[in-house]
Write a structure and sequence with these properties.
With 150 residues, the chain is mostly helical. The protein contains five helices and three strands; from the N terminus they run ααβααββα. The protein folds into two domains: 68 residues; 61 residues, Winged helix-like DNA-binding domain superfamily/Winged helix DNA-binding domain (Arc Repressor Mutant, subunit A, Orthogonal Bundle), CATH 1.10.10.
Length: 150
């Protein structure tokens, strides 16, 4: 769930104005309550820094959520393309069918193979073909048997 930073922006804006006002009062030669101004600058300065900290933390959190969502979308899209090619693809084929760059696709395919979900075959011309045998046809699924009946 994305978090909003609107309230913290308001906190930072108000505290910034109050800190600037306190600094102007400190600079003013005719103003006499300098210790009170200093205390207010420290107090509102703390809340301003706290607001900036929370904004940064929320922005990082929201960015990580976007990254997770993007990876999930990428995985879904690329697996659908691999299924459409009956589990045998090249990175260029997948990239041409998707909205992702070739290096992103290649990294995804390499990761899937390194996790044991597929393998890399080499054609006679030397091209790499990524093979994923986990995609079963309807006939293969229908003809499956229970492990207890084998």
């Amino acid at each position: 769930m994305k978090k909003s930073v609107r309230g913290y922006f308001i906190l930072v804006a108000i505290c910034s104005l109050l800190v600037m006002g306190g600094i102007l009062n400190l600079i003013d030669v005719e103003h006499e309550n300098k210790s009170e101004d200093f205390i207010l600058i420290v107090f509102f300065g703390f809340w301003m820094i706290f607001g900036v900290y929370k904004i940064i933390k929320i922005k990082k959190h929201n960015t990580s959520i976007k990254d997770i969502e993007r990876k999930k979308d990428m995985e879904d899209e690329l697996l659908n393309i691999i299924r459409a090619y009956n589990g045998k693809v090249t990175p260029i084929e997948v990239a041409a069918e998707s909205r992702f760059k070739i290096n992103e696709v290649e990294e995804f395919l390499e990761t899937m193979c390194s996790k044991g979900f597929g393998r890399i075959d080499i054609t006679d011309s030397g091209s790499c073909v990524y093979v994923f045998e986990g995609f079963l046809s309807k006939e293969e699924r229908d003809s499956s048997k229970s492990v207890f009946n084998i």
